[in-house]
Write a structure and sequence with these properties.
The chain is of the alpha/beta class. It has 11 helices and 12 strands.
Length: 343
């Protein structure tokens, strides 16, 4: 059995393999944040295809926390029913389901919303200048994350992931490029820049209790002078991990308008650094498409899971192909048995 297709148990949840579907926005919700038939088809296809863990796309904890007017939402109880329909259908195929709780901060482009950020700095000339968050607004957003985690229990998710990456609100607090505050939520020190994330995690853990698995997604590299690098993120994670972080999902970029030089596995080294310096399991990825490359990363102890994005968009059944390539057994849907790869 390959490492990619070995099971992994964390808390009281067992994943059937180490293949993770990365959260990828579909921009297909209605303007109230409700899931549509597209989401049902999109996620259940990957569940049938053999993915071990699906992390649902960035799902806004506030209306003003959406990236676009067509982002999924979980800021209201009315969102629960349709999300539950999707989650129940996916779990029936043996996949575990996670949700990425998100707030876009200054990168919100939803219509008719007042955008907020730690500091009044626009992402680029094409974006509006956000309002610097007041202490009261900071408390409101923290409460919104808590409420979203509570709704996530009602939906039936196995995992919750707090989105601290890609230049969205939590990432904006963590990075010195975007956090120019002079109070206890900024001021240049890592302790202050980590404070908002720490309070969000604490609030989430009040309802998403200790027996449940909590993920944190981070951007480990800002790709800009004066920004965060993997060692900085490890320090920041070490300041907050006692609030109950179980797994770190390692990505990069997005906090400033700089495109990384991307190639197969370009973010794996970042995950290695964070794994070593935090002693937490990590999910690594970044344009990984080859089963043997994924297997090498796991076998050499560079990560504990591999996330796939574009490859699972191209091929929802990639895990079935990967199992064949790695000479591993994995369960095929009974209806598809006649198409199973033969040795």
């Amino acid at each position: 059995m390959s490492k990619l297709f070995s099971s992994f148990t964390i808390k009281n949840t067992e994943l059937k393999n180490r293949i993770v579907m990365a959260p990828m926005c579909m921009y297909s919700a209605d303007d109230e944040g409700n899931a549509k038939d597209w989401h049902y088809l999109h996620y259940t296809s990957r569940a049938v295809g053999g993915t071990g863990l699906i992390i649902q796309e960035a799902t806004a904890v506030e209306s003003r926390g959406r990236i676009s007017s067509n982002d999924l939402g979980i800021w209201d109880d009315s969102h629960i029913e349709e999300l539950k329909r999707i989650v129940d259908a996916c779990k029936a195929h043996g996949v575990k389901m996670g949700i990425q709780l998100a707030h876009a901060g200054r990168k919100c482009e939803a219509e008719n919303e007042r955008i907020i950020a730690p500091s009044a700095i626009a992402f680029s000339d094409e974006y509006r200048v956000p309002a610097e968050m007041t202490k009261e607004e900071i408390k409101e957003v923290i409460q919104a994350f808590r409420d979203a985690a509570e709704r996530s229990i009602k939906v039936g998710y196995d995992f919750v992931e707090v989105h601290g990456a890609h230049g969205y609100l939590i990432n904006e607090f963590l990075s010195p490029l975007t956090n120019k505050r002079t109070d206890e939520y900024g001021g240049g020190s890592k302790e202050n820049r980590a404070r908002f994330l720490k309070e969000v995690l604490h609030a989430v853990r009040e309802v998403w209790t200790a027996e449940r698995t909590l993920l944190l997604r981070v951007s480990a590299e800002d790709y800009s002078e004066g920004g965060n690098h993997p060692e900085d993120l490890a320090d920041l994670i070490n300041l907050v991990k006692e609030e109950g972080v179980d797994i770190v999902d390692v990505s990069s970029g997005g906090v400033v308008n700089v495109a990384p030089k991307a190639f197969q596995g370009y973010q794996v080294k970042f995950a290695e650094v964070i794994r070593e310096k935090t002693n937490l399991p990590v999910i690594a990825g970044g344009l990984i498409v080859e089963p043997h490359m994924a297997e090498e990363i796991l076998q050499n102890g560079r990560a504990d899971f591999i996330f796939f994005g574009r490859e699972l968009l191209r091929n929802p059944y990639w895990p079935l192909y990967a199992a064949h390539e790695l000479h591993s057994e994995t369960g095929w849907p009974e209806q598809y048995e006649r198409a199973k790869f033969r040795k």
